[in-house]
Queue: 2 jobs
Job 1
Amino acid sequence: MTKNQTLLSWIEQMKQLVTPEQIVWIDGSEEQLNALRAEAESTGELLKLNEEKLPGCYLHRTAVNDVARVEHRTFICSKKEEDAGPTNNWMAPEKAYEMLYDIARGSYKGRTMYVIPYSMGPVGSPFSKIGIELTDSIYVVLNMNIMTRIGSKVLDSLGDSGDFVRGLHCKCNIDEEKRYICHFPEDNTIISVNSGYGGNVLLGKKCFALRIASYLGKTQGWMAEHMLILGLENPQGEVKYIAAAFPSACGKTNLAMLIPPEIYREQGYKVWCVGDDISWMRIGPDGRLWAVNPEYGFFGVAPGTNNKSNPNALASTRKDTIFTNVVNNLDNNTVWWEGLDKNPPKNALNWKGEKWDSASGEKGAHPNSRFTAPAKNCPCISPEFENPQGVPISAIVFGGRRAKTAPLVYQSRDWENGVFVGSIMASETTAAASGAVGVVRRDPMAMLPFCGYHMGDYFSHWLEMGEKLGDKAPKIFNVNWFRLDDDGNFIWPGFGDNMRVLNWIIDRCDGKVDAVETPIGYVPRAEEINLTGLDFELEELKAILEVDPALWRKEAEGIADFYGKFGDRLPARLREELDSLKSRLK
Ligand code: GTP
Ligand code: SPV
Ligand code: MN
């Protein structure tokens, strides 16, 4: 399919290493994909679901020990340890290659090597980047087909260029003691062994589009961020774009596909989804920040997705979708998960494939169970989704899960203060990564697990981008949908009602509303968040907009500790921001 010598010789080298029985080039044709679907069905790797209710849909179960990203086994293998920084695991490249090649050696014996050419971003767009993933998993091929643009057209676009990201994935024995997800930013290379779970093996996603791309962005003057992109259309038909970074399983997919409350819909407001997880951003010829979603589908969290919380996500999964680790309803061969509805199936298998009774109290779907759905299935997919130039960003929003401390929304004082706000983000951990759930940790810009280089340098890069953008820089905000009352219930209704907050954000960008200054930034006057049609008291709203100086003084101590990690690679500007926050809190 190609005469590209750089590509062919790398594949030959990998072939000698992993020794497949055969090599299959993925051309992207429906014919080839259908044959792979049939093969995966025959081996049990995929289970075909009810063709009438869920046309083109499949269920897959991962190994029980392989259900989430493994941050403690994820490495940045830069030449110098200091370039990976204090927040990444590091391994010397020579040592990592040797170890990984030992694990990978002969691991495709009796198996097929699939060669997947894929493009992150529309094929041929100047914003797009090409990757080649080698894998021994049909599940990976079929997921990559949904999540990225794949096939011969990508090879045509690559031509004989050597500018592509090399990705080797080997399932091996799914041995968690030998599971490694390694990135070589200086070599444009990713190697993933002993896993079959999404974020560890769909190499275009977190590995390329964030870890490798963040490094490329730093060296080439653009940004790769863990952000959704949405367009908010007002009754006059003007669309303003917002990019928002929340940590894993903290609400990006939900916000990206939001359906506004009735009072907004009646007036003609609408939200368009450009992307739900990753944003590549550059300064355009007009000096503004322009964003593209490099992905082609959604790898979304299933639990909690329902017709009320996120009807657009649910609609996206009604055809041509792969479900991973959800419940299988045996009565009609469909799928179910906690929070889909209040009627768990009686005759069902849980995510492990065991007979399951919801009365047992055990969850049927894994908390990190997922759907892989084509973006074009989404009823609110933006008309700009395929625009090779992307969309201009008016506001950047950071956010996390905080039971207390962070108010519903606040605006930073300016770009530099906004970078500070992003850098001090903290959130309770979720099931998207292995390890404890519900522990508050600092997760700057929601990039802690995804930044491919030293995070101190990453903060500098943000500051430099702000200098270049000048007065055309997007305004920066922080939100928290997750404040809890004393009984542990969410106070803010969230989901579609987050529109009320987005509206204030856009009004602030347009200079249409005032705000109240607090030590951490500007919060809305409670009266200026529209509560019409919502059963929510103004007093409650005031309570979640409050900034408690005592809590924030404690927070400032935590920030100082966190900043201590970065030593002299922490930009002085951020230390000054912390000092001035402290003095405002006195
Ligand atoms: P990744 O795909 O891991 O990056 O996650 P994400 O950031 O896209 O998170 P997602 O939108 O899938 O939401 C994760 C969980 O948060 C789901 O269980 C949602 O139901 C819940 N959630 C999302 N938005 C809200 C909200 O506004 N309020 C509350 N209380 N929960 C929310
Ligand atoms: C996340 O964990 O942020 C995800 C899912 O979007 S994964 O692809 O596993 O990274
Ligand atoms: Mn994510």
Job 2
Amino acid sequence: MTVSVPLPVRPLSSTPSLYVVATPLGNLHDITLRALAVLGAVDVVAAEDTRHSQRLLDAYGLKVRMVAVHQHNEQAAAGPLLELLAAGRQVALITDAGTPAVSDPGARLVARVRAAGHPVVPLPGPCAAVAALSVSGFAEGGFRFVGFLPARPGARVAALAALRDEAAALVFYEAPHRIVECVADLLAVFGGARELLIARELTKLHEQTVRLPLAEVGVWFAADPNRVRGEFVLVLAGAQAEAGLSAEAERVLGLLLAELPLKSAARLAAEITGAGRKLLYARALEIRGEEDA
Ligand code: SAM
């Protein structure tokens, strides 16, 4: 099939601007026509890794000057880019994959450009978090983007514990060398019944998306050593809404309440089932109230 689609003819604003351009996560075809037109028309492309981005530009025959803007030089690089904008030049910002400033460099540059009074124009496109969320089936109740968790185990568990009762789906980025530890911590904090979507190597040759209860995730990774390779997004189902305490959570809470003080029963039921602790506590109060009546 041949598709002949003209690129936008005048993709740039008449006012010199910073264009924040999303680029592919892996599949080079995941780029918008507008992104190609803007990247081909600007005076300078600020790229996280210029050698990496050169491959994208080459794939589409785009010849444009690039400068490096990465995590370690973002503040220093902002100055010369601001001067270019002030001199009437048009500038695009890209990162190695996905949307700039989402767990990537860009936020500080954007803030500086805005503060200097220049327009900042978004060019939407790929974002690993949104791609994973879109195939999770968990997004209906909203979502919370967490991004990368702390690398140290203690800090990671503490960060997760603070999210235990979050009703929205939680979206995490994780590196392959920490993925197994990370899912073990998810199991410890949220309980085996909570469901997780694992999105691996999105848009690439070995793309995999699988949705499992946390209790089964360790076995899934252990079943094939290739499954710990590549890039990962994890989407965790949110804590169940008020109306939706599962039959299993009700059963476990009932059993524990028969033996334990109310607070301990609710806490343990949350650990065992993954249901929200506040929700279980409220339900436990109800049950005790019914018993006393
Ligand atoms: N700005 C990017 C975005 O919009 O998604 C994220 C950049 S962040 C430095 C890189 C992380 O994003 C990876 O460690 C992984 O968690 C996630 N990621 C990026 N590409 C991915 C892919 N193809 N499949 C799964 N996760 C991916």
